[in-house]
Request: fold
Amino acid sequence: MNATCIIVGDEILSGHVQDANGHFIATRLAVTGHRLMRMSVVPDDPEAIAGALRADLSAGAAIVFVCGGLGPTHDDRTMEAVAGALSRSLEPCPPIVERIERIVDRMRTEGFAGDPLGISGLEKMALVPAGSEFVECGVGVIPAVTLVHEGARIVILPGPPRELQAVFIDGVEPQFLAETGAPLARIEVEHLFPESSLAAALTEIERRFPGVSLGSYPLEDRVLIRIAGPEEDAHAAAASVREAIVVLEESEEGRRLLTYFRGSHER
Reply:
């Protein structure tokens, strides 16, 4: 299943906060055998959020994760943006309404007068796009909802990583990801040649195995090649990568190249 992820937050774009949610979702999608097509980071602006969502849906995403912007303040506008992008109204989500009512009742029981919590802001958090379903989570009521639009599933998740991870593992993954993806093999191969030495071989291997992802990453003293894809094809591609390395290692030019670069590293 092809997935996309939209990270919402001025604090991410300004550098005040380092995003953890995108990495977490990418990892869980890989573990459950789904493909993350792309990830975008947008500001707390309804037009930007709506535009990113429309673009992901147009690109053919089967599931879109929208993360952040669900709080009680003026700059938390993700629900509004998603509703606008899908031409839906906002409506109260009963489980979130109940949670807010319990919080307010507790404060009144404790003798607080007036409105120290800012109840209108809390009530705003309970408004979700029409047709949304609450995502259940065993650790409590976390503001996360899901809806289907023209065959694609949209999952709206909170920004705080602890809340997002809890509801993702407990609610999202079992319902929408588990046992629906194709198991992926992830293989790593290393070599000591310059990265460019294997470029042509990797291009040809990628052409032969279009469903396999090949990534080449230069490290300080070696190059790491990461291979990911369906079990059989990934292992076949990895075997081809190893074969290309051996061919280069056993060639006269390859041996000279290794000797030259080892010497340059030692100088």
Notes: Residues 231-250 form the longest helix (20 residues).
